[in-house]
Amino acid sequence: MFAGGMLAWTAWSKPVEAAGKRVFYVPVEQDIERGLESFLRRAFQQANEQRADVVILDINTPGGDVVSAGNIGALIRSAPMKVVAYINNQAFSAGTYIALNANEIVMEPGSSIGAAAPIDVQGNAAPVKITSGWAQMMEEAAKLNGRDASVAKAMVYIDQDFAGLKKKGEVLSLGAEEAQKLGYADKIVRSKAELFQYVGVNESEIVHISPTPTEKVARFVTNPVVLSCLLLIGMLGVIIELFAPGFGVAGTIGILSFTLYFFGHFVAGFANWLDIGLFIIGVILMILEIFLPGGIVGFLGFASMSTGLVLAAYDTKQGLTSLGIAAIITLIVAFILAKYFGLRGTWGKFVLKEEQHRDTGYVAPKNQNDLLGKTGVALTNLRPAGVILIEEQRIDAVSAGGYIAAGSEIKVVQVEGARIVVQDWKNESKG
């Protein structure tokens, strides 16, 4: 059993050379995005290091990010070995572009290629500038192996008529037989066994490369929609925690979201330790702001956190957009929480909660506006402060001018809260 296990491990880890050919089999599945690009770079590097003769790309995708597709196309063109695109289901949009960059395209009956009109995240037609550039990329990829570039162009433009291919308003996609007639499929096979026979290798000799668990996480995280959600959940978790007493579920979820964000982008090769360091420094500065209020430390902390998050993203523009959306939603939620639930938790530390009661010795200042204009007698000298007597009530007062001797008649000329201002009434009346 041990010997059998060793043989199985050897067969998986090292290509068998009996047929004289090293063939790597790599899946290109789901959406085309930066995580897939990172995985394919590793796959081609491994194939190159083991001197593979052929790399088979098993393409089954509805399309995806145009930029990632362009990078993958460049990766295929620079590969030193032969690349075969195998389509057993669909290779639409960006998947079509990837297939066109391969040396050969092999399709199964029932599979399709084409439908390459670019759309935005809302599902609307992309701007003319992007569509034009994408059409040029598709045409150049078709020319690489002598394919009719007009077919590639017809796959991109929906609003144009292409005689013999499609009418205006239609989307051009090709089945296996039609693709072969137009030169967009070099071979039609009915199974993987036929594919391997066509390539000239036994199935047992194939080296299969699949995404690792961490690469699968990276693919998930670097999806633009997931990226935005992680930032939003992270920021909401932190802000909700600030309104809640103690450390709870919201804070934990927020930290986990940010951790997953950085982990995925780090594995995919987009984030580095500098980005992570900037984020951590920002968090520390934000915490210090609680103990060193003033705003400057908090602003620097927010700037550092934001910079780390944006730089870690696979695309700076996408990172800024996602962060901006998350920040706006977070501010709205924070306003609602403050309005309906008040300031609690960390924010509550900035609010004076102590109450002053009469039974503990606190007495609110008495409203003495009724003293304004009344007359009385100075019980003590006012220089300028002293004590006066008005209607049998002793009152602390200050002189409006100079010295007032005890026993002088006085008049209240100003009242400011507990401050009573008087002047010598006898001298004033004489003047």
TrEMBL record:
The keyword Isomerase does not apply. The keyword Nucleotide-binding does not apply. Keywords: Hydrolase, Membrane, Plasmid, Protease, Transmembrane, Transmembrane helix. GO terms for molecular function: peptidase activity. Residues 226-339 form the NfeD integral membrane domain. It holds the Pfam family NfeD_membrane. It is found in: Membrane. InterPro entries: ClpP/crotonase-like_dom_sf (IPR029045), Membrane_assoc_protease (IPR052165), NA-bd_OB-fold (IPR012340), NfeD-like_C (IPR002810), NfeD1b_N (IPR056738), NfeD_membrane (IPR056739). Residues 369-422 form the NfeD-like C-terminal domain. Its main location: membrane. Residues 23-208 form the NfeD1b N-terminal domain. Signal peptide: none annotated. The chain crosses the membrane at residues 220-240, 247-264, 320-343. It is a multi-pass membrane protein. GO terms for biological process: proteolysis. This is Serine protease. The lineage of its organism: Bacteria, Bacillati, Bacillota, Bacilli, Bacillales.
